[in-house]
Structures are given as structure tokens and as C-alpha cells.
Known about the structure:
The protein is α+β, with helices and mostly antiparallel strands. It contains 8 helices and 15 strands. The chain is globular, with a radius of gyration of 19 Å. The site of pyridoxal-5'-phosphate (PLP) has 12 residues, from α6 and β13. Pyridoxal-5'-phosphate is lined by residues 182, 185-187, 206, 208-211, 244-246.
Amino acid sequence: MTRTVYVNGEYLPETEAKVSIFDRGFLMADAVYEVTSVIGGKLVDFEGHVTRLQRSMSELEMVSPVTMDELLAIHRELIAKNDLNEGGIYLQITRGAPGDRDFAWPDPDEVPAGIVLFTFNKPLVDSKVMDEGIKVISIPDERWSRRDIKTTQLLYPSYAKMQAKKKGCADAWLVEDGFVTEGTANNAYIVKDGTIITRQLSNDILHGITRAAILRFAREAQMQVEERPFTIEEAQGADEAFVTSATGFAQPVIEIDGATIGTGVPGDISKRLREIYTEEMIKAAI
Ligand code: PLP
């Protein structure tokens, strides 16, 4: 089926949608993005995603081409036009197309930001990964230092993922100064003696929308949470490990750099958190 996508104010068949070769997203990765999951045709934690989008834009002095209410309407229209039941919506806002290549940012009054949205189908609730868990490798974190801003500069995470694939693993955990920052496109956690451990928020990691919800649900369920850095060695000795992201929810990690985590099968706390998250997010989806 040909998707209907949204490009700079128009809904178009994906085969007819075009952006300028001078778009700064294309030339310089001068763009921010969000991915919101959709379950049962409804948006999961839309509020969290638009709040982070606004923050990413404001940190980079970008001016949104649409209001946040318009953004919600566009998301809903795309769900309807594409008959989307389960999957997600990718949204990208770029600093526009000034008609030439220049390191200096164009005046936002003269060059409006560019905006693109498209849907994708993906099974989210029933996932094979949940039964089996994933294997990860560790790799140095060589991204820029403002990882709290969700930009489209994804070459290093993409490179890291390929290194993982070459070793037969699904993903890589990035390590800086001896401590895990996060996964290539997810936040990383370990569980030891019932305590959930994940790196504290700072510019070193993306402030995951799923992370915020998972930690809230964990605390509500009286689970112990410690927000602090951990090493690969500590992770290898943990009882459980898992990652969270908007389209992955909570996914168990069963092997890190060849070392089996716990008993080598998804742990009870990871499974329980995924269950609670799925149930609560379906209820709250809009
Ligand atoms: N960390 C990174 C580097 C990411 O790219 C992502 C998602 O793309 C996440 C964490 C998880 O964030 P969220 O839960 O908002 O999807």
C-alpha cells in the first residue's frame, strides 16, 4: 500500500513527496525528530513527545512551523489516512531549505522550518523479542555531547548498531569514561537484588519518554530505583538487564559482550515492567 505522508503542509502519496536538496536536514543533519508509537489507532504518550520536541527545538533555536495542536491534528489525520492500527509516526523538523549551503543558520523569518511526517506499521504489543531477549555488545560512545537533544545526527549510533550486527547481536551499549551511557536508540537498565539501576538524566543521554514512564510505574509498584551510572562489568554480573524505547517498550537483554545475564532468559522484573507499561499506555493513549 502506498502511504500518505505529510510534507510541508501537504498530505501526499509517499511516491510524490519531495524535499529540497538544500534542506539543512539533508545537508547538515540540522534537524530534530520524534517517534510516537501507535496502538489501536491511538497515540502513546503524545504529550511527552511534543514536550521533548519543543525542548529540542528551543535548545537549537529552531522555530516550529506548526503549533502543537496542529501537530496532534496531523498525527491523527495520518493515522486515519493510512488506517494505522499498530506501529508509529516519525516526525522530523529541519531548519528549512535556504536555497544554498551555508554553515550559518538562516533567519527563521525568511526561511521557514521544514516538516515531514510518515507512518509505519510494526507489531509492538506482541513481540518475539520479549520471549527471547536480545544480545548486545559494548562500544565506545563517540557521539557529540548534547545527546539530550534528539537530532537526526545518527551516523554513529547507526555505525555502532552495524558493529553489533557483525557480531551476531541486536544492539550496542555505548560506554563513556568506563560507564554505560545508553543503547544506540534506547535507554539501558540493569537489575540487581531487586533494584532497578539506570543512568541519571544529563546531557549524556536522551531523556527517554519511555524511561520516564517506566521509572514512574516501577516506583508506583514499590520497586527500588537507583539513578546512577553502571559499568559493563557490573551489568554482566546483574540479575537482569533491559532497554526501553517508544517502539520497543521494555526489551530484555540476555547477553552483554558474550556474558550471560542472570539465567539467560528474560527476567521477571523486566517482564513485569513491560506488562504494566503496555497496559497503562494502552489505557492512556489518545
Ligand atoms: N536513547 C536514544 C539515543 C534514543 O535514540 C532513543 C529513542 O530513539 C531512546 C534513548 C529512547 O527514547 P524514547 O523512550 O523516548 O523512545
